[in-house]
Design a protein that fits this description.
By secondary structure, the chain is α/β, with parallel strands linked by helices. It contains 9 helices and 15 strands.
């Protein structure tokens, strides 16, 4: 048994939630095949929701959030994973209803665990985390639908967020002409530094909701926000274009009609990075460590400690987070 530190969200007697760093033991962790000493995690919007008591993400409290973890195997009951192996865990139930990566140890099923690709360090893997995996899945799906680099711009909504910032950097590194959407005018230089050629004000994507179709603008798009912004992107896709949808910060619904689909043959592609087969996740991590490896990862990230997390969670919920937030557990 080991004693370790973890961020824990608890519900008070007055039904309010508080988050603080506590001491736990490995005996407190759920049953599983693999015990992992966590070196790094990352802060995602879903973690912030869990830490604020959102029961759509986490049903029971007290709870340790953290849907991402990278570290070293300490104990394993399966032959595929040995003590000392460096590994990555993202998604599935980690950090939702299973104690997550905001603790210095996790215990999980072997079916959730990927060995670290040789082209990425544990730190780099968590700079990417679920956000990087999701961005890669979006771009992969767009390319499968026929998207290729060219002069026409590819749009990224929510571009200063975790998924959005990595999508901007990835698309730019692959030779795409990237247009980045943000409501943070002061972050234009940050986005240009990631490779964006055009900055689009969020308000421009909110206009024209009442119109059935808009002027053709985008060769393709990665949408991280949802809501009416998503359907305005659909309505402005060029003929045969596609948008990969992976987020909902602007809402889960939108005003829709069939005209963009039947007049321009566009595609709305859903992307899930949580429950997809482990082999699919592994293939994306291999891409991110090799042909899609980003040279400018350090430009995307701020590094914080476990003790810094409560404040960072508050900033994320207030819409003030830019880029990626790496959590150092060691």
């Amino acid at each position: 048994m080991a004693i370790f530190k973890a961020l824990q969200t608890s519900e008070n007697a007055d039904s309010r939630f508080e988050t603080r760093v506590v001491e736990r033991t490995t005996d407190d962790l759920p049953k599983g095949d693999v015990l992992i000493r966590v070196s790094y995690s990352s802060l995602n919007y879903k973690d912030a929701l869990s830490a604020s008591g959102n029961r759509g993400v986490t049903r029971n409290f007290p709870h340790t959030p953290g849907i991402d973890a990278a570290g070293t195997v300490v104990e394993s009951s399966v032959s595929e994973l040995a003590k000392g192996d460096e590994v990555i865990v993202t998604g599935y139930d980690l950090g939702m209803n299973t104690a997550g990566g905001f603790g210095q140890y996790i215990r999980v099923p072997a079916a959730w665990v990927i060995k670290r690709p040789s082209g990425l360090s544990l730190r780099d893997a968590m700079v990417l985390g679920t956000a990087g995996l999701t961005a890669a899945l979006c771009i992969d799906k767009l390319e499968q639908a026929g998207l290729e680099p060219g002069e026409a711009p590819v749009l990224v909504t929510g571009a200063t967020g975790g998924v959005g910032s990595i999508a901007v950097a990835l698309l730019a590194s692959l030779g795409y002409n990237v247009a980045a959407v943000t409501g943070k005018a002061d972050q234009a230089e940050f986005l240009k530094g990631l490779g964006a050629k055009q900055i689009v004000e969020r308000s421009a994507l909110q206009a024209g909701v009442e119109k059935p179709i808009l002027k053709e603008q985008w060769a393709g798009a990665v949408d991280t926000v949802g809501g009416d912004i998503l359907f305005n992107v659909v309505k402005a896709l060029q003929r045969g274009g596609s948008v990969a949808c992976c987020g909902l910060t602007a809402g889960t619904g939108f005003q829709a009609n069939v005209l963009p689909f039947i007049l321009r043959g566009v595609n709305l592609l859903g992307v899930d990075s949580v429950e997809i087969p482990l082999v699919v996740k592994a293939s994306m991590w291999d891409k991110l460590s090799l042909q899609w490896k980003l040279p400018n990862l350090s430009d995307l990230v701020q590094e914080i400690s476990l003790q810094d997390l409560p404040g960072a969670i508050d900033r994320m919920l207030a819409g003030q987070q830019v880029g990626r937030m790496l959590v150092r557990l060691d």
